[in-house]
Amino acid sequence: MEALAAGVGLFATALLLGGMAFFALVVAPAVFRALDAEAAGAFLRRLFPVYYVWCAGMAATAAVALVPLAWEAAGVMAIVTAGFVFARQALMPRINAYRDAARAGDASAEARFVGLHRLSVVINLAQMLLAALVLVGFAGRAW
After folding, report:
1. Contact in structure between 55 and 20 (CB atoms under 8 Å)
2. Which residue has the higher pLDDT, 100 or 5?
């Protein structure tokens, strides 16, 4: 049973990290190369909710599967899950609202958009780092 839990937990963590890296390094740049800035933004605005749900699902799966093996790793993945839920439910709506307000001419909204967007990037990078640490921890048998 431990082997199955390890397999599920590590596979979900690897899928999460790989998906996040693919999105950041391939998908987003390709969208901005293929579409004008406004169309790219509209496309990504529709894609991000799906991205966050998928990532939260992978992280939650990993967290649950890793509980019997390494509660520390499970806790890390639970934190990663919470970050995705926060980003989708709290951060993304505010980012979109400030972006819309800035496009409508609200000069103060642009600074808020930039700050919240930067926060979302920092959270995403931290989540990638945490997922990588879980994988490295298991590779090195630290957990």
Report:
1. yes
2. 100
Nearby residues of 61 by Cβ (< 8 Å), 6 or more positions away: 8, 9, 12
CA distances 19 to 12, 99, 134, Å, are 10, 26, 16
Closest CA to 53 of 25, 26, 81, 27: 81
Q: What is the pLDDT of residues 16-31, one digit of tens each?
A: 999 999 999 999 999 9
Tokens 């967007």 correspond to: 117
* Alpha helices per DSSP H over 23-142: 28-34, 37-66, 71-86, 92-103, 107-139
The answer to whether the beta carbons of residues 67 and 75 sit under 8 Å apart is: no
Rounded-to-integer distance, Cα 17 and Cα 32, Å: 22
User: In 57-66, which positions are buried (b, 16+ CB within 10 angstroms) versus exposed (e)?
Assistant: ebbbbbbbbb
| Whole-number Å distance between alpha carbons of 138 and 86 | 27
